[in-house]
User: What shape does this take?
Amino acid sequence: MTAPAPVSAAPAAAADLRGGRRYTDRAFRAAMLAAAGIVLLVLVGTAVFLVTSAWPALRHYGFLTFLGSDRWAPSDATAGSTHPNPYGIVQFMYGTGLTSLIGMVIALPVAVAVALFITEVAPAWLRRPLSSTVDLLAAIPSVVYGFWGIFALIPALHPVVNFLTSTLGKVPGIGLAFAGPFFGVSYFTAGVVLAIMVLPIMTAICREVFATTPADEKEAALALGSTRWEMLRMAVLPRSRSGITGAAILGLGRALGETIAVTMVIGNSVLAITTSIFGQGATMASVIANEFTEATEPFHLQSLFVVGLWLLIIALVVNVAGKLVVRRTRADIA
Amino acid sequence: MRARFSAVAAGVLGVALAAAGCGSTGNVSSNSGSGSGTSSGAKNVSFGSANKQLCSASVNTAPKYANPIGTIAGGAKTLSGAGSTFASPLYSTWASAYSKATTVTVAYGSIGSGGGVAAVQASTVNFGDSDVGMAPAEIAAAKGGPVLQIPVLLGAVVAAYNLPGIPAGLKFTGNVLGEIYAGKITSWDDPALKKLNPGVSLPSLPIAVAHRSDGSGTTGIWTDYLTKESPAWVSKLGGPSKSSGKTIAWPVGIGGKGNEGVSAVVSETKGAIGYLESDYAIAQHLTYGQVENKAGKFIEPCIATIVPAVNGVTFPSNLNISLTDGSDPGVYPIAGTSYALVYQHQASKAIAAGLVNFFAWVLTAGQDLNASVYYAPLGAGLQKLAYAQLKKITVGGKPVA
Amino acid sequence: MTAPLTPRAPQAPRLDGGDAGLTRRHARDRAMTVLLATVMAITLAVLAWVLVYVAAQGLKYLGPAFFTQTPPGNPAQVGGGYANGIIGSLIIVGIATVISVPVGIAAAIAIIEYPGRLGAATSFVTDVLVGVPSIVTGAFVYALWVTRFGYSGLAGSIALAIIMLPLVIRGTAEMLRLVPVALREASSALGVTRARTIVSVVLPAARAGITTGVMLAVARAMGETAPLLLTTLGNSLFIQANPTQRMSTLSLQIFGDAITGFQSAQARAWAGALTLILIVLILYIAARLTGRRLTLTRS
Assistant: This one.
């Protein structure tokens, strides 16, 4: 949100108020500000409770050891030993990063294309219906995406992935990242589902960025005889670069936090990083969802809070960065 | 130009929508399995005549144990429990029959043995259930004091697989299963599997190993057996303390939540193998195999081969003992029980009475229902020991029963 | 004498590439238009694929039994429904709405009507809260509430209220900002107190927009599953209307049944997924329509 526009303070009313009415006014104001305080408390409380719940594990194993290992083996944990840390979380960061990256890489060009179509190519009467329809993709709940992913998407992906593993998978070097076998659930499948889920927000931001391109620049390009595509390439896209970047970052931020759809299609293999994108893995969010309610090993639950803490930090950093980038582009254009 | 463009766009849209619609109605969820025609007769043909004899032998599945405790007045009208997915189909059956008989509702959450132990430790449920007994450290961490562990059923963990065209009854040994789960055997046409199953044309399909992603007593029973029979499994995991238990650092495979989740992975993934409680495999028409027992015989899991698992077993006072790898020649080696977890010293008289009433019923009239969901009833000896545990439940120092 | 006719200019290369170049450029333009249209069509096709697939699977099982019965004790059994989940969802989301809407509207009023450092901080924090993953919110409510009071529907409502809060605040604040300053000034010129102005003049003017924001927040809450896994744990067999006990929701039941291998459980889950999508889409479309009516009357 931009800074709120100042509302006139109505000084005349204050002078007229007599005792009781001034008291109600002040009480009302206090109540409203208290509600604002609650909002602040919620964010602060989330951070505080996560840290205090994670603290026993952080103190026992040391803050950095969680980031130093990619082996998550709760069965190795004993109440006494502090080294090595059986709760390495690097593979969850890898899983979160990889699936979100795949999602963003697939969704970004599509979002740009769809936004261009809606704002520049489609006739004016189609713009609203089309953008509302694309926004519907955001309304579908995560659990439905996961369910559809298992039974509709995975069978459709099999031929595509089999083709990729038989071609890219055989190339020396990068072939490791594309190696089979493909069992349906994988980082890649989760990435595809995430792409569909973050598409609406990226499209909405791109739409706004394209729609606020100054009309004179577009008209100037057209007046010089350029075709529509050349106009887009010369007048719209170059100015929109940072806006598109902002959309990408915000899409990434949205993808980081997705839990249920990812859990259902990623395969839930938590031991270590799997090199192939077609192998099974886990993300920070999915391991919390899967192991939280039965974390009975020593420091297991606290380590899951460590994962949650890192997820919160990363998600906040990415989202704030994305907002700043998008806000800056809007300021440029204005 | 504009109008023509709009027409083209609409046309492309229409075709795309039609294609999506047509494609999706064809994509019915395809489960594997031999279809609903898998009668036990057809299965036994693949398991061999020795197993056919064993499994069709008559077993007393309705022991009709006596219930001297009777019904204690003042029991709670609702009880909440949570835990093992291994036992969950039977708890559902019991809860449903019990509520018809007494109007008491028992809500059982199938969250895994690990979750059941955690819930009992935190006292967020009235009773828990775990297929692996609680270790002394786990009982020490329980808020309410000592925990009684009451066996309530006998069941089997089967090795289910998804190989189109291959019938049920594939032969496995403990070591081969251990090597599959350690990631040493990665393809179905591996020579070790071919040697065990000479008459079967195994496809060269990669093996998709399915295991539990949650803390599981079924895993405890399965890995306990693998630890006893597969040195490859033990060495891959780094020692017997790490290769057996409710939570395992699985070297390979796809994780599923609960027995339900593992059965989903097996039925949805071609080339999958997974360990499941028998009811889950049977209810979904999944093919499962026969496993070599200590006496060297390949045994099919069925009620008649589960019952001998308690033969020759001396139960300790807390009844906490493994039942895998039995010595009986006709026993299925991967058998186990499930322990209801109840605090010995209850705080509320209503809950205590309710629990005693429910479990007295489970251990007597309830045992007659076990076979309907492919579990075996407790043998007379074990049932007596389990029933005696109920008498230990106290409220305010006084026993309830 | 007339000036000589301008000699014909030498054939300089045309800036637009000449006639052949023009055709090439037009062809490229057309190709890009077709490409953009195709990508648009594929996107719509994916949406249609999801909706049609869920509808096709769900309709196979959807029926009156689904809404009135609870699941059978044994998940392999055919039949039963999600009555407990539907009731649970209504209660849990209802309580979450009751918690988040007053706090959200009040906080938005604080941001817009009483600008200052607190308001600016709240505005920033609201934007930040939108980006908090819902599973993290669930973990927070677990540490805050469940460790003290156990799993319950109420804990789930608190988690959902936290998730809904920034959406309600954002929707309300945008509407409040649109209310003309003149309206507020006229009201105070008549001697009405600030509080009364906000309650009786500004809020009713923004009513349609606030409703839109609330409906979108409710739609979001109905679809949430992850935070409920950690706070209310589900109650898969029985209808439970007491929020201090563990309750089920539609989303939890769909998740629980979808990951099993039982075809009968999956059939129920598809019907549940269809129901959930319908509820969420109806809320979404209704929110859009009220929002649209608002802008139309304003212009």
The CA atoms of residues 47 and 151 of chain A lie 37 Å apart. Chain A touches chain B at residues 71-76, 79, 122-123, 126, 150-152, 154-156, 180-181, 183-185, 267-271, 280, 282, 290-291, 293-297 (CB under 8 Å). Residues 90-328 of chain A form a domain with the MetI-like fold fold (CATH 1.10.3720.10). The longest helix of chain A spans residues 19-61.
